[in-house]
Amino acid sequence: MKPAHRRYLGLVYVAPALLFVAAFVVYPLWRLVRMSMTSASLLGGGAFVGWNNYLKAWRDETFWHALLFTLKYTIYVTPILMLGGFLLALLTAEPGRIARFTRGVVFLPVVIGLGSSSILWVGLLDEQVGLVGRLLHDLGLVAQPPVWFVDADRGLWAVILTVVWKVIGFGMLLFVAGIQSIGIDIREAAMLDGASYWQRVRYITLPLVMRTLLLTTLISVIGSLLAFDQFYIMTSGGPRSETFTSVYWIYQNSFIYFKQGYGAALSIILLVIVLVLSTLHLLMARRGGET
Protein backbone atom coordinates (compact mmCIF):
# COMPACT_ATOMS: atom_id res chain seq x y z
CA MET A 1 0.00 0.00 0.00
CA LYS A 2 1.31 3.43 -0.92
CA PRO A 3 2.19 5.84 1.96
CA ALA A 4 -0.49 8.32 0.83
CA HIS A 5 -3.15 5.60 0.82
CA ARG A 6 -1.97 4.42 4.25
CA ARG A 7 -2.37 7.97 5.59
CA TYR A 8 -5.89 8.24 4.23
CA LEU A 9 -6.73 4.83 5.65
CA GLY A 10 -5.61 6.09 9.07
CA LEU A 11 -7.92 9.08 8.72
CA VAL A 12 -10.79 6.72 7.94
CA TYR A 13 -10.07 4.75 11.11
CA VAL A 14 -10.00 7.84 13.36
CA ALA A 15 -12.93 9.58 11.61
CA PRO A 16 -15.61 8.14 14.00
CA ALA A 17 -13.66 9.35 17.03
CA LEU A 18 -13.11 12.77 15.46
CA LEU A 19 -16.80 13.07 14.64
CA PHE A 20 -17.70 12.08 18.20
CA VAL A 21 -15.35 14.71 19.66
CA ALA A 22 -16.59 17.35 17.23
CA ALA A 23 -20.26 16.62 17.96
CA PHE A 24 -20.10 16.18 21.74
CA VAL A 25 -17.10 18.31 22.80
CA VAL A 26 -16.12 20.98 20.27
CA TYR A 27 -19.62 22.03 19.16
CA PRO A 28 -21.12 22.22 22.71
CA LEU A 29 -18.04 24.14 23.89
CA TRP A 30 -18.40 26.61 21.02
CA ARG A 31 -22.09 27.07 21.87
CA LEU A 32 -21.16 27.63 25.52
CA VAL A 33 -18.62 30.32 24.63
CA ARG A 34 -21.14 31.96 22.31
CA MET A 35 -23.85 31.86 24.97
CA SER A 36 -21.51 33.35 27.57
CA MET A 37 -21.43 36.57 25.53
CA THR A 38 -25.20 36.97 25.45
CA SER A 39 -27.98 37.71 27.92
CA ALA A 40 -29.59 34.36 27.11
CA SER A 41 -32.38 33.30 29.44
CA LEU A 42 -33.92 29.92 30.13
CA LEU A 43 -37.20 31.49 29.02
CA GLY A 44 -35.73 32.32 25.60
CA GLY A 45 -34.20 35.28 23.82
CA GLY A 46 -31.02 37.08 24.65
CA ALA A 47 -28.95 39.82 23.04
CA PHE A 48 -25.20 39.98 22.48
CA VAL A 49 -23.50 41.68 25.45
CA GLY A 50 -19.83 40.95 24.75
CA TRP A 51 -17.65 40.68 27.83
CA ASN A 52 -20.28 42.09 30.20
CA ASN A 53 -21.00 38.71 31.79
CA TYR A 54 -17.31 38.24 32.58
CA LEU A 55 -17.09 41.74 34.06
CA LYS A 56 -20.17 40.93 36.12
CA ALA A 57 -18.49 37.73 37.34
CA TRP A 58 -15.44 39.76 38.39
CA ARG A 59 -17.71 41.86 40.63
CA ASP A 60 -19.81 38.91 41.84
CA GLU A 61 -18.92 38.45 45.52
CA THR A 62 -21.05 35.30 45.80
CA PHE A 63 -19.17 33.63 42.95
CA TRP A 64 -15.77 34.40 44.47
CA HIS A 65 -16.96 33.24 47.89
CA ALA A 66 -18.21 30.02 46.29
CA LEU A 67 -14.91 29.58 44.45
CA LEU A 68 -12.91 30.10 47.66
CA PHE A 69 -15.15 27.64 49.50
CA THR A 70 -14.64 25.13 46.66
CA LEU A 71 -10.86 25.58 46.89
CA LYS A 72 -11.06 25.13 50.66
CA TYR A 73 -13.01 21.90 50.20
CA THR A 74 -10.47 20.74 47.58
CA ILE A 75 -7.50 21.50 49.84
CA TYR A 76 -9.10 19.58 52.72
CA VAL A 77 -10.34 16.49 50.90
CA THR A 78 -7.48 15.85 48.44
CA PRO A 79 -4.71 15.07 50.98
CA ILE A 80 -7.07 12.79 52.91
CA LEU A 81 -7.91 10.85 49.75
CA MET A 82 -4.26 10.65 48.66
CA LEU A 83 -2.81 9.59 52.02
CA GLY A 84 -5.71 7.28 52.86
CA GLY A 85 -5.68 5.63 49.43
CA PHE A 86 -1.91 5.10 49.57
CA LEU A 87 -2.01 3.60 53.08
CA LEU A 88 -4.88 1.30 52.14
CA ALA A 89 -2.93 0.24 49.05
CA LEU A 90 0.09 -0.62 51.20
CA LEU A 91 -2.13 -2.76 53.42
CA THR A 92 -3.84 -4.60 50.56
CA ALA A 93 -1.26 -4.72 47.76
CA GLU A 94 0.21 -8.08 48.81
CA PRO A 95 -1.51 -11.15 47.27
CA GLY A 96 -3.88 -13.07 49.49
CA ARG A 97 -7.55 -13.71 50.13
CA ILE A 98 -7.81 -11.25 53.01
CA ALA A 99 -6.17 -8.49 50.96
CA ARG A 100 -8.48 -9.14 47.99
CA PHE A 101 -11.53 -9.19 50.25
CA THR A 102 -10.46 -5.93 51.91
CA ARG A 103 -9.91 -4.27 48.53
CA GLY A 104 -13.37 -5.37 47.44
CA VAL A 105 -15.03 -4.00 50.58
CA VAL A 106 -13.23 -0.65 50.37
CA PHE A 107 -13.90 -0.32 46.64
CA LEU A 108 -17.59 -1.24 46.90
CA PRO A 109 -18.85 2.33 47.66
CA VAL A 110 -17.20 3.56 44.43
CA VAL A 111 -19.86 1.80 42.35
CA ILE A 112 -22.65 3.64 44.21
CA GLY A 113 -23.82 6.85 42.58
CA LEU A 114 -22.75 10.05 44.32
CA GLY A 115 -26.34 11.19 44.64
CA SER A 116 -27.43 7.87 46.15
CA SER A 117 -24.55 7.86 48.65
CA SER A 118 -25.32 11.46 49.64
CA ILE A 119 -28.96 10.57 50.33
CA LEU A 120 -27.79 7.56 52.34
CA TRP A 121 -25.52 9.71 54.50
CA VAL A 122 -28.23 12.32 55.06
CA GLY A 123 -30.16 9.58 56.82
CA LEU A 124 -27.12 8.26 58.69
CA LEU A 125 -26.19 11.76 59.94
CA ASP A 126 -29.72 12.76 60.93
CA GLU A 127 -29.66 14.06 64.52
CA GLN A 128 -32.86 12.23 65.48
CA VAL A 129 -32.75 8.83 63.78
CA GLY A 130 -29.25 8.76 62.30
CA LEU A 131 -26.94 5.89 63.20
CA VAL A 132 -23.78 8.04 63.40
CA GLY A 133 -25.11 10.45 66.04
CA ARG A 134 -26.58 7.61 68.09
CA LEU A 135 -23.29 5.70 67.94
CA LEU A 136 -21.27 8.73 69.06
CA HIS A 137 -23.72 9.27 71.92
CA ASP A 138 -23.66 5.64 73.04
CA LEU A 139 -19.85 5.66 73.04
CA GLY A 140 -19.89 8.70 75.32
CA LEU A 141 -18.11 10.94 72.79
CA VAL A 142 -20.94 13.50 72.68
CA ALA A 143 -23.66 14.48 75.13
CA GLN A 144 -26.26 14.80 72.39
CA PRO A 145 -26.29 13.57 68.77
CA PRO A 146 -24.73 16.43 66.76
CA VAL A 147 -26.71 18.50 64.26
CA TRP A 148 -24.42 18.44 61.26
CA PHE A 149 -25.92 20.85 58.77
CA VAL A 150 -26.70 23.98 60.80
CA ASP A 151 -23.04 25.03 60.86
CA ALA A 152 -20.95 25.56 57.71
CA ASP A 153 -17.73 24.02 59.06
CA ARG A 154 -19.48 21.01 60.56
CA GLY A 155 -21.48 20.53 57.37
CA LEU A 156 -18.27 20.74 55.31
CA TRP A 157 -16.61 18.00 57.34
CA ALA A 158 -19.74 15.87 57.12
CA VAL A 159 -19.59 16.14 53.33
CA ILE A 160 -15.86 15.36 53.36
CA LEU A 161 -16.57 12.24 55.43
CA THR A 162 -19.12 11.00 52.90
CA VAL A 163 -16.89 11.76 49.90
CA VAL A 164 -13.89 9.98 51.46
CA TRP A 165 -16.07 6.92 52.16
CA LYS A 166 -17.36 7.03 48.59
CA VAL A 167 -14.14 7.73 46.63
CA ILE A 168 -11.14 6.49 48.59
CA GLY A 169 -11.42 2.98 47.14
CA PHE A 170 -10.76 4.29 43.63
CA GLY A 171 -7.46 5.88 44.64
CA MET A 172 -6.56 2.75 46.59
CA LEU A 173 -7.05 0.61 43.48
CA LEU A 174 -4.84 2.89 41.37
CA PHE A 175 -2.10 2.80 44.00
CA VAL A 176 -2.38 -1.00 44.27
CA ALA A 177 -1.84 -1.27 40.51
CA GLY A 178 1.19 1.01 40.77
CA ILE A 179 2.70 -0.89 43.69
CA GLN A 180 2.15 -4.29 42.07
CA SER A 181 3.89 -3.07 38.91
CA ILE A 182 7.15 -2.60 40.85
CA GLY A 183 9.49 -5.46 40.07
CA ILE A 184 9.87 -7.95 42.90
CA ASP A 185 13.63 -8.04 42.23
CA ILE A 186 13.89 -4.37 43.26
CA ARG A 187 12.18 -5.04 46.57
CA GLU A 188 14.20 -8.17 47.21
CA ALA A 189 17.45 -6.30 46.52
CA ALA A 190 16.44 -3.63 49.05
CA MET A 191 15.62 -6.29 51.63
CA LEU A 192 19.01 -7.93 51.09
CA ASP A 193 20.64 -4.54 51.64
CA GLY A 194 18.92 -4.35 55.02
CA ALA A 195 16.29 -1.73 54.20
CA SER A 196 13.37 -1.69 56.64
CA TYR A 197 9.75 -1.75 55.50
CA TRP A 198 9.28 2.02 55.79
CA GLN A 199 12.62 2.67 54.10
CA ARG A 200 11.46 0.56 51.17
CA VAL A 201 8.19 2.51 51.09
CA ARG A 202 9.97 5.87 51.22
CA TYR A 203 12.84 5.27 48.83
CA ILE A 204 11.40 2.67 46.44
CA THR A 205 7.62 2.46 46.47
CA LEU A 206 6.76 6.15 46.74
CA PRO A 207 9.12 7.39 43.97
CA LEU A 208 7.99 4.62 41.60
CA VAL A 209 4.28 5.39 42.09
CA MET A 210 4.76 9.14 41.73
CA ARG A 211 2.96 9.19 38.36
CA THR A 212 0.02 7.41 39.95
CA LEU A 213 0.08 9.96 42.77
CA LEU A 214 -0.02 12.82 40.26
CA LEU A 215 -2.89 11.16 38.37
CA THR A 216 -5.00 10.54 41.47
CA THR A 217 -4.29 14.07 42.70
CA LEU A 218 -5.47 15.54 39.40
CA ILE A 219 -8.64 13.43 39.43
CA SER A 220 -9.37 14.43 43.03
CA VAL A 221 -8.73 18.13 42.41
CA ILE A 222 -10.90 18.28 39.28
CA GLY A 223 -13.67 16.26 40.94
CA SER A 224 -13.57 18.55 43.99
CA LEU A 225 -13.64 21.73 41.89
CA LEU A 226 -16.72 20.37 40.12
CA ALA A 227 -18.45 19.30 43.35
CA PHE A 228 -22.21 19.74 43.23
CA ASP A 229 -24.31 16.67 44.03
CA GLN A 230 -23.15 16.16 47.61
CA PHE A 231 -23.62 19.80 48.60
CA TYR A 232 -26.93 20.13 46.75
CA ILE A 233 -28.34 17.08 48.54
CA MET A 234 -26.72 17.36 51.97
CA THR A 235 -26.42 21.10 52.72
CA SER A 236 -28.49 22.78 49.97
CA GLY A 237 -25.85 25.50 50.00
CA GLY A 238 -26.69 26.46 53.58
CA PRO A 239 -26.56 27.74 56.12
CA ARG A 240 -26.83 31.27 54.69
CA SER A 241 -25.30 30.17 51.36
CA GLU A 242 -21.97 29.46 53.11
CA THR A 243 -21.56 26.06 51.47
CA PHE A 244 -22.18 27.21 47.91
CA THR A 245 -19.69 25.61 45.54
CA SER A 246 -18.78 27.09 42.16
CA VAL A 247 -20.94 24.63 40.25
CA TYR A 248 -23.80 25.18 42.70
CA TRP A 249 -23.72 28.93 41.98
CA ILE A 250 -23.60 28.21 38.24
CA TYR A 251 -26.65 25.98 38.65
CA GLN A 252 -28.47 28.66 40.64
CA ASN A 253 -27.90 31.30 37.97
CA SER A 254 -28.66 29.04 35.03
CA PHE A 255 -31.75 27.17 36.23
CA ILE A 256 -33.14 29.06 39.23
CA TYR A 257 -32.56 32.66 38.14
CA PHE A 258 -32.85 31.76 34.41
CA LYS A 259 -29.58 33.61 33.59
CA GLN A 260 -28.10 31.10 31.20
CA GLY A 261 -25.76 33.60 29.57
CA TYR A 262 -24.23 34.53 32.90
CA GLY A 263 -24.12 30.89 34.00
CA ALA A 264 -22.25 30.05 30.77
CA ALA A 265 -19.67 32.76 31.53
CA LEU A 266 -19.13 31.34 35.02
CA SER A 267 -18.73 27.87 33.47
CA ILE A 268 -16.04 29.17 31.11
CA ILE A 269 -14.14 30.71 34.04
CA LEU A 270 -14.26 27.42 35.92
CA LEU A 271 -13.19 25.57 32.76
CA VAL A 272 -10.12 27.81 32.44
CA ILE A 273 -9.16 27.06 36.06
CA VAL A 274 -9.45 23.32 35.43
CA LEU A 275 -7.39 23.60 32.23
CA VAL A 276 -4.64 25.49 34.07
CA LEU A 277 -4.47 22.81 36.75
CA SER A 278 -4.44 20.05 34.14
CA THR A 279 -1.58 21.77 32.30
CA LEU A 280 0.41 22.06 35.52
CA HIS A 281 -0.17 18.35 36.13
CA LEU A 282 1.13 17.46 32.66
CA LEU A 283 4.24 19.58 33.21
CA MET A 284 4.87 17.94 36.59
CA ALA A 285 4.34 14.46 35.12
CA ARG A 286 6.75 15.21 32.25
CA ARG A 287 9.36 16.55 34.65
CA GLY A 288 8.93 13.49 36.85
CA GLY A 289 9.40 11.24 33.80
CA GLU A 290 12.59 13.05 32.81
CA THR A 291 14.07 12.70 36.28
The gist of it:
The protein is mostly helical and 291 residues long. The protein contains 13 helices and no strands.
List keywords for this structure.
mainly alpha; MetI-like fold; 13 helices; 75% helix; flat
Describe the structure.
This protein is mainly α and 291 residues long. The chain has a domain at 76-242: MetI-like fold. 75% of the residues lie in helices and 0% in strands. The protein contains 13 helices and no strands. The mean pLDDT is 89.
Terminal CA distance reads 41 Å
Total beta strand runs: 0
Mean pLDDT: 89
Give the helix tally.
13
Structural class: mainly alpha
CATH topology of the domain at 76-242: MetI-like fold
Q: What share of the residues does DSSP label as strand, in percent?
A: under 5%
Write the layout of secondary structure elements.
Blueprint: H1 3-36, H2 52-58, H3 61-92, H4 97-107, H5 114-124, H6 131-138, H7 152-180, H8 184-192, H9 197-208, H10 210-225, H11 229-234, H12 246-256, H13 260-290
Helix pairs in contact: 1-13, 2-13, 3-4, 3-7, 3-10, 3-12, 5-7, 10-13, 12-13
